[in-house]
Amino acid sequence: MAFESFADFLAMGKHGFYVWSAYGISAFLVITSMVLALRGQGRVRQTLARQQRRAEVDK
Amino acid sequence: MAFRAALSRELLVLWRSPAEIINPLFFFVMVISLFPLAISPRPETLALIAPGVLWVAALLAVMLSLDGLFRRDQESGVLEQLLTSPVMTVVPVTAKLLAHWLLTGLPLVLVSPVLAHMLQLPDRVLGVVMLSLLLGTPALTVIGAIGSALTVGLNRGGILLAVLVLPLYIPVLIFGAGVIRTAVEGGPVPGVLAILGALLALTASLGPLAVAAGLKISSGN
Amino acid sequence: MVWQTIKRWYHMLGSPRYFHTFSSRVLPWLTPIALITLVTGLVWGLVFAPSDYQQGNSYRIIFIHVPASSGALMGYMALGVSGLVAVVWRMKMAEVMLKAIAPFGAALAAISLITGSLWGKPTWGTYWQWDARMTSMLILLFMYVGVIALQNVIREPRQAARAAGLLAIVGVINVVIVKYSVEWVQTLHQGSTLKLFGESTINPAMKYPLLISMLGMWLLYAVNVLVRARTEVEWRERRSKWVQTLIRKGDQ
Question: B172: domain range?
Fold first, then answer.
């Protein structure tokens, strides 16, 4: 452990703002990209399923 | 032979639409005249920003002139013919790029000493200004033509072309403006000119291949 | 022998259907491994690694900055390789990859720039310096944007991928030249040469968490690419029987 207390950890020796905003923004961007990838897949599957149902109704 | 015929044909086509030759030139002059008005007419300030201003203006003028480079050929069906012709696509493409540079890039080079003088650059560097643009603008034409080839069928106009092409222009911009700055500061110019020449050799040799490939992709074969 | 194995792999992974089954088997364990590795590296770096004797704790941004920068750079190289394969051999999976690799790479380039400037403020006293590395990364981000923009405006997916592929090939050549030209501009300026970290003097207690978070980030990038590539494959092969069966199964 490099820190004595949790408050120390959050403070990051006066640089807390820089460290935590760097990690926060990074986490936001990575998670957003992941969510967009998964949502894109869900949307494609939904569209294909809808097309399939429509094709089966037409038969 | 095929090259010469293609070149004279392209020159003739461009010559018949003088607006396409004159507009980039006026654009170049107009953009440059904005800077003394926007930043400061003080000679020292102008001399400091002049290399960058000249180069950014030349870069934008060349890029905007390339927006419709292949559009007319595509609309008239010439492009389709060109891509299926037995002659390698590279030959007519190279001819077209050369013709385009001769009528839009070269005029910029020729007026550049006047503008450099107006931007208070010392007279001893005017030759370097011309030389840097002489080596740089053909490279800009070729690189821009790759972007133009990739966007032919799209009715998107200049913004997309700019987004694709501007990052690719950065090395030419750096060394082009860098030559002039080196000359102003009295540094060794030939070495930097050689790098600019190397960039031109690289783009002129590989560029037409990329343009031809881009045209093939855009036309869907 | 080796050559034949490579050839077999090329053909197998070049087939969208094979890729799809292969990735469904890989993803369930690759995803947790990637997350665990990344979290381990970051927690180690943030909590357990000693603070730097010069920079104090602000240096801990390195554990996200360097993985993001290296990922962005490798991603663009991978984009160039896929571009070459897509343009020259017209391999379908390379086209799919061109679309799958770009978004996360662009996000990593943005992360690299943002974390770099947040690190720069306490270290250099300014958020932004036109130093060689930051400038190159900014241009790399521009080039990612170009590839993505071009893919978005071309309707026909195969044509879009090959156009982006050509742009990526030109872009890779450009990345190398940009790096040297930006370094050259620095020497012309004779500005202060700034370094975020001394070369190779990094303490092992800092090195291991850095290597682990780097690995974790690359694995997470791979997960992201696989998910996007699977989506693209499903869409492109939507008329094929195997995708139809897959959708039917998922529908129930």
Answer: 2-218
